[in-house]
Design goal:
about 350 residues, five-stranded mixed beta barrel, 2 domains, single chain, alpha/beta, Spore Coat Polysaccharide Biosynthesis Protein SpsA, Chain A, four-stranded mixed sheet
Amino acid sequence: MAELFAVVMAGGRGERFWPLSANHLPKPFIRLLGSSSLIQDTVSRIEPIVPLERVLISIGAAHVDTARRQLPQIPAENFIVEPVGRDTSACIGFCALHIERRDPEAVMLALPADHFISDPSAYQKTVRSGIENLEGTAGVVFGIPPTRPETGYGYVLAEKPAVRSDAWPVVRFVEKPDAAAASQFVASGNYFWNSGMFLWKIRTLLNLFQKHMPETYAKLCEIRLLLGKDGSDSEIGRIFSSIPRISIDFGIMEKTSGLRLVPAQFIWDDIGNWASLERALPPDSMGNIAQGTHVSLDSSGCIIYSQDDMVATFGVSNLIVVQAYGKVLVCSKDKAADLKRLVTALGPQEG
């Protein structure tokens, strides 16, 4: 079998987790769910399938040192530094070139660095199923059976096979729907949340870039000729900066036929804002979710995160209270998804 490489994409900022997550420490590197960061959890989950020498970390230059400190087990040459952020198509294409240099027949598993996954064993079983079903496809999408009519996620419509199979033919990708459409999707049984986790053969992936994103492919071909050459970093950076800023979903996946979807066998969440911790962590008897030192009296349905000091809540409900880096956030839970507005209002010195 071809060698499997994992690419962990860690370029996100996580502004909806202010003040804990900011430009100096984006969401993948914060300890939201316990004693380890989200990126550490991601690498730990995939290690039983992909040896660490074939785990690549796609990262921005500003966070390389943080990534290396948190992941000392990853070889230094496996930290693939994006010259600038150009969305997931540029990230994945750039990493594909690095993998191609090591093994042009390899398979790439692309993984966001900041997801919550409940059961590592079930996750590994799902990934192995994707690998087993990759042959003869244009790629594999890992879909999440929806548990609620979520309007913040993209969906994938897949055709249930007539014969029992782990791989469903993909019909189409659907952008974030309105509430009515989301409810119909959940009821249908044929729509899945798009997890952002994908699997391709490197040759197939680069051919898809050539077919569906010819401008980006041309830039990647220029970069391919420069990789490994002394003094080429500035030229690679110049070319990379000119790549169109497009997601892999929009640029390639939505336009590609012959994809298969493997339904996930685990609970998943993209942990998009403070309120999403309710889906990943157990509440106390009053429905509060607390990380760090917290004392509660007559408080219910709150989410509390304390980095250093004690946080006490008294007689309040449905609040988010966060203490980190000498700053305190207090907001209603129903404003959690809109926290970027606050970060923008605070100005760049606070981001």
